[in-house]
Each structure stands twice: as structure tokens, then as C-alpha cells.
Design goal:
Elements lengths: L5 H4 L10 H4 L12 H9 L13 E3 L2 E3 L7 H10 L2 H11 L3 H7 L3 H4 L12 H14 L15 E5 L3 H12 L3 E5 L20 H13 L3 E3 L10 H7 L2 E4 L20 E3 H15 L13 E5 L3 H13 L3 E5 L26 H10 L4 E2 L2 E8 L5 E13 L6 E5 L5 E4 L2 E4 L8 H7 L23 E3 L2 H4 L4 H20 L6
Helix pairs in contact: 3-4, 4-5, 5-8, 6-8, 9-17, 12-13, 13-14
The structure holds flavin-adenine dinucleotide and iron/sulfur cluster.
């Protein structure tokens, strides 16, 4: 522990961000790093408490708390305080393959469980992590690590999101021969096409992929396994196959006209088109949905909806409304949700901050749903009919459900409707192509704590296995699956 009284002496200081009205002028990241000297004080705030919940990654009251990667947080905070940046980075890289991704987009489950946060502000764990890895890249500490010895084992990873990349990285470092197949034209899964550029610049993803290529991993793009490449071909050519295809089956709206009215998009399709057009041509190709001057309604008040809000604000939309079925969460932890549980509180994310700056109000409306789609005579969406909801207990089952409030209907102008209402598991054609069983939640089925499917030599990890989740969980699953695959291939494993 560097400074016993650091948490009393220094205030939490976050990386400064560009003002909402300024940053919406482009799709660039908008945070700057504080200096090394300032960062040192942030490291000093870690009190090295006897039981560091920050690195626990455990389930409490049905929610994860603490880092799922069990990052050695107190150790590297201490090293930051002492100025041992190189050693701190080495300790960080022991448990996290891609801190440059989590340091940008992780919701920081660690900080929610930080002991300093019990009655004051938590340590800036996530930004300390980002500072370590970015300092490492800048100063030549992150260089290709090419395995000296190779096994004769061939592994195919299907899907190049964080889980697939983590499996590939770990098994490649172990000396196996890894090929990653991706159906899109770019590598990265939702890191590339999903999470918008202003949250994670795509040059950051490419930087890591280039490093992994130099380390010996092969990447094949535009390869849709189970479609333009057969599963049989893959099964024949490889000693182990890992399905990391994500949970890309979006929840739809069952409304009349859904499939015929123009102007309705799934959030990930909308965001993918946007990023692809940005990267391909800086929007000159026009192959994206431009919300400039349009009224936009987004179904879903969560993180994906927020990314859509940030995107349409950057286009220059006329209005944006995020419709959320559930009631607004409290602004502070309730008594039934104490530290170190994940705080179930209302957070105002970057897109919503920007909407408030531009339009003067929060774009979210709660306890509301879309009841009807209204089109003009050319079949283009022009409005939606919304209705208010209230929570009611089913007298027979005792379960709570949202019920419509009669007479509360309203008409909302809408030229574009974006559906950001969550996901219903993986896309079935991949599971069918390999013959792997699904569980009732349509995720690929394995025994608890295992990543092995019912089909010999076929494994799974990430959202395809655990359902819609987080980047940090994708990396954690990928790392655990790699150990099991190594054991399957070699008869033992010395991977930790
Ligand atoms: C809009 C959006 C924003 C998000 N923001 C955050 C955030 O800020 N922070 C956070 O922690 N999490 C965020 N998430 C969640 C996070 O991105 C996912 O949990 C994570 O990416 C899952 O990783 P994965 O590797 O399991 O799958 P994915 O990232 O979904 O990658 C799966 C890959 O498999 C490919 N694939 C699918 N089928 C095939 C096939 N048949 N052949 C070849 N390739 C195939 C897909 O094209 C895709 O590239 C966000 C999710 C969305 C949708
Ligand atoms: S990966 Fe996420 S939860 Fe883990 S230390 Fe980093 S920011 Fe915290």
C-alpha cells in the first residue's frame, strides 16, 4: 500500500471530457488523459483494504459485482503510486488480454464494489487501467509476443468479438495454431460494429488485431460459417472449434406494419451501417441511415439506446425520444441494494447528456411503450402511438407485469424508429450447422462451469454462451474456455 491516507488526502479525479455541444460535431472519442503526476494520486487513493471486493467478480443478489477478470487492482494501483508503470502493466496483462477495450467501455463493476465507494467516491480503477495500457503502447512496452514453440494443434474460432479474440490470444500464446473466422468485413465483433466510434475508436481495435496477426493468429473475414463456409469443412480441418458468435438475435416489436413500413431498424443494424460508412468513406458513400432533420424514436432506454441517441444527435436529428417500459430507477442506492452490490440507480450516459445539452431535456420517457405504427400514404413511418404502463401484480402468480393505462395514448412524430429492446440469444443457424444444443434461453448449452458443447471438439464462449452481456464477461469467458480447450487437446493444462 503506497499511501495509507491517500483516500483521505486526494479527491477522485476523472479524465476530462469535451463538452457535449462540442463533441457532437464528430464521431471521435472525447476524453483526454490526466497527467502521470495526477494519475499517481489516483493510484494513491486505493487503500489496499484487507478484502478487495473490487477484484472479486462475484454474484450478489443476482447481479455481478467486482471485476470478472479478477484484475489485480490493489497491486497495480500501488505500483502506479510508486511510479512503477512497467511492472503495473505486466500485472494488469496477467489477467486482462485487452485493457484498452475495458479501460474505455467497461461499466467498471470494480468501482461499484470499491471499499472507498462505501461512504465516499471509489478509486478511478477503470481510468487507471486505461492509462497503464495506453502508456504501454506509447512507450513500446506492448510488442508482439511470438510463441517460441508451436504445437501441431489447429483451432478455429468462429466470431471475432471480445470472447473470440480472448480465446484466440490465450491459445496462441500457449503455442497452438489459431484461425479466427468472421462473417463481417472487419474484425472485432461488437467492438467494431456495435459500440460506436466515439466510445471506442476503431483504430484501437485495429491496433490490437495487427498485434495479434504479428503474433501468429490468422484472421479470415467475410466467412459466414454455416452459410458461405460449411460447418463440416471447419470440423474436418480443425482439432477444436470455438463458437463465439454473440447473441445477435434482436428482440422485435410485434406491431402491425412492422415488416412493411419503411424507416424501422434494429439498433445494431443501424449502428453497424453508421460505423461502416464512417470507416469506409467518412459517410460519403451514403450507405447509412441519416437522421439529419428527422424525428427519431428509440425503443429501449438502456445502453444500446443511449448509443443510438449519441449517433442521431451527431447526425443533427430534429428530435430524439427513448421509450422505456420500466419505471425510472432511483438516483441513489435504495436500502435493499447496499454496497458492494451493483448499484441499481439511474445513470445519465453520454448520449443522454448530449440530448439534454441540445434539446434541454432528458430523451427518456419511462413506463411507456409503442402501441401502433403510423405510416404516410407512401408507406413511410410518420408517427407512433404510445401508451403509458403501470406495474401490477398478477393476483394468481404474484408476478409483477407492466399493464397499459387505458386512455393514456399519445401520438409522437417519428420518421425513424430504432429498436434497442435487447436480444433473444444467438442466431440459430450457427448452432444448427454444428448440431449444438441450446438451453431454454436459446444460448448454447454446456454443463455449469464448462464451455464444452454436446458435440465433440466444439466449445463456446461469450454472449453466445451466457446471453447478452459485457465486453469484460466476453474476455473472462474466452480466457476460461481457452484453458478447457488446452486441457482437451493436451490432456492437461498449465494455463492459469
Ligand atoms: C450497441 C451495443 C453497445 C454495447 N456497449 C457496450 C459497452 O459499452 N460496454 C460493454 O462492456 N459491453 C457493451 N455491449 C455488449 C458487448 O459488446 C458484448 O457483450 C460483447 O461484445 C460480446 O462479445 P462476444 O465475443 O460474445 O460477441 P460479439 O461481440 O457479438 O461478436 C460475435 C461475432 O461473431 C460473428 N459471427 C456471428 N455468426 C458468425 C458466423 N456464422 N460466422 C462467422 N462469424 C460470425 C459476428 O459477426 C460478430 O462479429 C454493447 C452491445 C451493443 C449491442
Ligand atoms: S475490466 Fe472492468 S471491472 Fe475489471 S478492473 Fe477493468 S474496469 Fe474494472
Amino acid at each position: 500500500m503506497g499511501k495509507p491516507t491517500g483516500f483521505l488526502d486526494y479527491e477522485r479525479e476523472l479524465n476530462p471530457s469535451t463538452s457535449p455541444k462540442e463533441r457532437i460535431k464528430n464521431f471521435n472519442e472525447f476524453h483526454k488523459m490526466i497527467s502521470h503526476e495526477e494519475r499517481k494520486l489516483q493510484g494513491a487513493r486505493c487503500m489496499n483494504c484487507g478484502v478487495p471486493f473490487c477484484q472479486s467478480g462475484m454474484m450478489l443478489n443476482g447481479m455481478a459485482t467486482g471485476c470478472p477478470l479478477h484484475n489485480l487492482i490493489p497491486e497495480w494501483n500501488d505500483e502506479i503510486f510508486k511510479g512503477n508503470w512497467e511492472h503495473a502493466l505486466a500485472r494488469l496483462r496477467k489477467t486482462n488480454d485487452f485493457p484498452e477495450f475495458t479501460g474505455r467501455v467497461c461499466p467498471a463493476l470494480c468501482e461499484a464494489a470499491c471499499t472507498c465507494g462505501m461512504n465516499d467516491t471509489p478509486v478511478t480503477v477503470k481510468e487507471n487501467e486505461l492509462a497503464l495500457i495506453e502508456n504501454g503502447f506509447e512507450n513500446g512496452l506492448v510488442v508482439p509476443r511470438i510463441p517460441e514453440v508451436r504445437s501441431d494443434k489447429q483451432i478455429a474460432v468462429i466470431g471475432s468479438g471480445p470472447s473470440g479474440l480472448a480465446v484466440a490470444d490465450r491459445l496462441n500464446q500457449r503455442g497452438h495454431n489459431v484461425t479466427v473466422y468472421e462473417k463481417h468485413d472487419r474484425i472485432g465483433g461488437l467492438l467494431m460494429y456495435g459500440i460506436p466510434n466515439m466510445k471506442l475508436e476503431k483504430s484501437i481495435v485495429d491496433r490490437r488485431i495487427n498485434l495479434m496477426k504479428e503474433e501468429g493468429i490468422k484472421f479470415v473475414t467475410n466467412a459466414d460459417i454455416g452459410n458461405n463456409v460449411s460447418a463440416e469443412e471447419i470440423l474436418e480441418a480443425y482439432d477444436a472449434v470455438v463458437l463465439c458468435c454473440g447473441a445477435g438475435n434482436p428482440r422485435d416489436l410485434a406491431l402491425e406494419g412492422r415488416s412493411t413500413i419503411n424507416g424501422i431498424y434494429f439498433a445494431v443494424d443501424f449502428l453497424t451501417m453508421n460505423t461502416k460508412s464512417l470507416l469506409d468513406s467518412n459517410f460519403k458513400d451514403g450507405k447509412y441511415v441519416n437522421a439529419k432533420g428527422k424525428n427519431v424514436v428509440i425503443v429501449g432506454g438502456g445502453d444500446t439506446g443511449n448509443d443510438c441517441t449519441g449517433t442521431v444527435i451527431r447526425h443533427g436529428c430534429k428530435s430524439v425520444t427513448q421509450i422505456e417500459m420500466m419505471p425510472k430507477l432511483p438516483d441513489k442506492r435504495s436500502e435493499s441494494n447496499p454496497w458492494p452490490q451493483w448499484p441499481r440507480v439511474c445513470k445519465t450516459d453520454y448520449g443522454q447528456e448530449e440530448a439534454i445539452a441540445v434539446f434541454g431535456h432528458d430523451p427518456r420517457v419511462y413506463e411507456t411503450t409503442v402501441k401502433e405504427l403510423i405510416a404516410d400514404d407512401k408507406g413511410n413511418l410518420k408517427a407512433v402511438k404510445t401508451v403509458k404502463l403501470k406495474q401490477e401484480k398478477n393476483p394468481e402468480t404474484g408476478a409483477m407485469a407492466m399493464k397499459e393505462i387505458p386512455g393514456s395514448e399519445q401520438i409522437l412524430d417519428a420518421d425513424i424508429l430504432i429498436i434497442a429492446a435487447g436480444f433473444l440469444g444467438s442466431q440459430k443457424y450457427v448452432a444448427d450447422a454444428f448440431g449444438v444444443e441450446l438451453n431454454p434461453r436459446t444460448n448454447v448449452k454446456t454443463a455449469a462451469g464448462s464451455y464444452k458443447t454436446n458435440v465433440d471438439k466444439v466449445f463456446t464462449a461469450g454472449d453466445m454462451h451466457r446471453g447478452q452481456s459485457l465486453v469484460v464477461w466476453g474476455i473472462a469467458e474466452g480466457r476460461e474456455a481457452a484453458k478447457e480447450i488446452d486441457s482437451y487437446l493436451m490432456g492437461y493444462t498449465n494455463m492459469v
